[in-house]
Every structure is written in C-alpha cells, then in structure tokens.
Amino acid sequence: MTTGWKIYWLLVLATVGIGLVMSFWTIPIIMQSAGGLAPFDVRPTGYSFEDAQQFLSALKADGLSVYQGAQYQLDTAFPALQGAVLVIALRWFSQAWHALARVVLVVFPIIGAVADYLENGAVLKMLVAGADQVTAEMVATANGWTVIKSTTISVSMVALLGFLLAALIRRLRSGKAE
C-alpha cells in the first residue's frame, strides 16, 4: 500500500471516529437536553422557524454547552475530513470518466463541506440568540445550508455506493467466470 493510500485510510478512520463520537456522545446529549428534539445539524430535510424556536426553547443549559462546545469543535474537523474522503474516493472510482464529468462529480462533496461550515456558523448564531432572539432570517439561512449540505453529501454517498456496488458486481462476475 502506498503512502498516499495509508494517509487516505487514516482520513477515513478519523472521519468515521469523529462521526461516531458525535453520533453516540454529543448528539444524544443535545437531544436529551432538548426533550428528544433533534439538533439542527441532523435534520436533513430542514426545519421551520417554529421548529427552531421549539428546539431552542427546549434546549437546557447543559445541552447548549455541549452544542456550542464539543459538538461545534468536532463539527469543525468533520466537514473537511468527510469532503476529502469523498473527493478522493470519487476521483479514484471515476478515473475512466471524462474529465468534466469527474469534476462535476467531485464538486458535490466540496459544496457539501462548504455548506456544512456555513451551517455551523449559522447554527451557532441561532444558539447564541436563543429562542427569544432568533429571527426568521437566521433560521432560513441555517436551514438553507442544512438542506444544501444534506443534499450534496447524499448525492456523493449514493454515487460512492454505486461505484462500490459496481465494483462488487464486477468482482463477483470475474470470480464466477474462472
């Protein structure tokens, strides 16, 4: 295995590790503190102004502290790591494609990473404002970035899954031919 692939697998490991920490530590704490309501970051279809006010009203100080602290710090590293992992994998699997098609394909995880960072900033602004000070414009901005992030990362993941499935089918067919 080349040094480049070793670095890639370290990136995968870091991405999965941070994702698991968020999934099994920070997000459950935030949800419990908000009476079971999901944090903004994990609402792929978005949220309304009323949803945001409800979440912010329900969120207790301990959950707010975790959201603004540990969750925010973890989600500072995650988008870049996830974006890099997806770009590298999609570029590798699409080597036989036309250059323009490859560029279009890798733009999705890049947009997803950028939208995730913009979402993080917009969510932090809502958390600081709280239920009484949050505005419809603040929520609309954060919601827009959430939906863009979710959509572009989903497209990237489906493409990667498609490549993996095609590779598995090729491998199974070549094994049966022998």
Structural notes for this entry:
- The chain is an all-alpha fold and 178 residues long.
- The chain has one domain.
- It contains five helices and no strands.
- Helix 1 (3-33) runs antiparallel to helix 3 (61-93) and helix 4 runs antiparallel to helix 5 (136-177).
- The longest helix is centred in the last third of the chain and has 42 residues, at 136-177.
- It is elongated.
- The two termini are 26 Å apart.
- The mean pLDDT is 96.
Helix content: over 70%
- Report mean pLDDT, rounded to a whole number: 96
Structural class per helix/strand content? mainly alpha
Largest sheet: none
Distance between the termini: 26 Å
What Rg do the Cα atoms give? 19 Å
Count of domains: 1
Strand portion: under 5%
Order of helices and strands: HHHHH
Q: How many β-strand runs?
A: 0
- Structure annotation, total helices: 5
Shape: elongated
Name the poorly predicted regions.
Answer: none
Helices and strands in order:
Layout: H1 3-33, H2 49-58, H3 61-93, H4 99-133, H5 136-177
Helix pairs in contact: 1-3, 2-4, 3-4, 3-5, 4-5
